[in-house]
């Protein structure tokens, strides 16, 4: 059986082969158990045994119809197609989504199934996978899971008229000058990157929309003959220009203020660039930030997560620091050869201070082994204990009310940066996952991270 990661996979929403090494009874249910996988409890039935090889599906992924039908996991009446066993039902809706829910008072951090549940994908003489830790979103080139993205009605929020026009700027950016931000993976799935002697920086995670502001090298033209002429006249064929984007879409497709074409009706990214970030960019600098608060239309960027901002009304100017805020979490400098140099958390803070920007809130910084009084040997045990210590540390406000928001909302979580390795991982609070799941259930607001 061929388990692979597709080119477009999101690392936070892939399946994984895991071995059950810790198992205990659910305190509030006789026929349920808690399987501890990478430091997180997942609720299973009492047929599960220590040593079993399982498939783990993370919260907010959606699972392929083929798998759900073959394993009779749809709830009764959820879909037109019948479960393979018409007398057996699960709890999945038509969308195949793994929800964050409380079961008898405890949150299950994902969905576990025996490896034998993959039998429906076997071909020829293939065998079931038994390699602990294997991550995948495809089996024999068939997609089995992906990030769940709800379908929303876009009435009043349709894309602007720029849709479908050629993205001229993308063709003119010099190679390796612009980089979108990588998906921050969950720490629970990456404990192997932790070592006791590492310098860690721990910051408050904020629930907004990602933005990138860059001043990078862009070609004057893609016309080969014109470039030759410019060189003969000793005129530079490249120069530094500003680029700004959401997490995955460049917003100023045709370059230059006043020529901006937003692909979406709500363009808080261009507003943030014009009002705040334009004067904070130096040649080669890329600033990665979270925009929080409210949109120009008055809706929340992420529902009622206000972060101290107030809704915008039609009779006032949309203002930074009042209606929306910007928190910088990463800065890089890219040279003319396309080599990107990562700023340390301290350098990010210094850059922000120099240009009047706000860095993300630092909660803690120090060498990993000095943060908690736990034994560092054996290493695997230390990693598990360190992860649990992070989750339970009162300084990080996990499972508590957000320390910045005026509205009563849970803290999203924390970001752990391994400074020397320039790696970052996240821990989300269970209270946040429950709220996020409930909002997706009710379709209360569109997540502009997914739409943009």
Summarize the structure in words.
The structure is a single chain. Helix content is 17%, strand content 26%. The protein is of the alpha+beta class and 452 residues long. A hairpin with a 5-residue loop joins strand 20 and strand 21 (340-342). The protein is globular and about 75 Å long. The chain starts with a strand and ends with a helix.
The helix content, as a percent range, equals 10-25%
Shape, per Cα inertia axes: globular
Q: How many strands, what sense, and barrel or not for the largest sheet?
A: 6 strands, mixed
Distance between the termini: 35 Å
Tell me the strand percentage band: 25-35%
List descriptors.
452 residues; alpha+beta; five-stranded mixed beta sheet; 9 helices; 17% helix; globular
